[in-house]
Amino acid sequence: MILGIVRGSIYSTIQHAFYRNRSLLIVDYIDPAGKPTGKYVIAIDSVGAGVGQTVLVNDEGNGARQVLNDPMGPARSVIVAIVDAVEVAVQ
Prior knowledge:
With 91 residues, the protein is mostly beta strands. The chain has one helix spanning 61-67; strands at 2-10, 23-30, 36-45, 54-59, 77-82.
């Protein structure tokens, strides 16, 4: 799982049928303190996330296909949650 912030949307006029009626979002990876790590992913939105929201991304193909209920779908990354807060325990 990846913690990230939604930075924008991807739009295309020509696309694989699997992606019809699905939103693709650009997600910046962040560390637990909320700072960007320099990495990003394009993920399918399954929760209605919007720009600026902190989200949890499943970046593993089989898990993404299970969330989207399509065992043969061409998917790797899917947004599975909108994060309300992050707590880090210091030991």
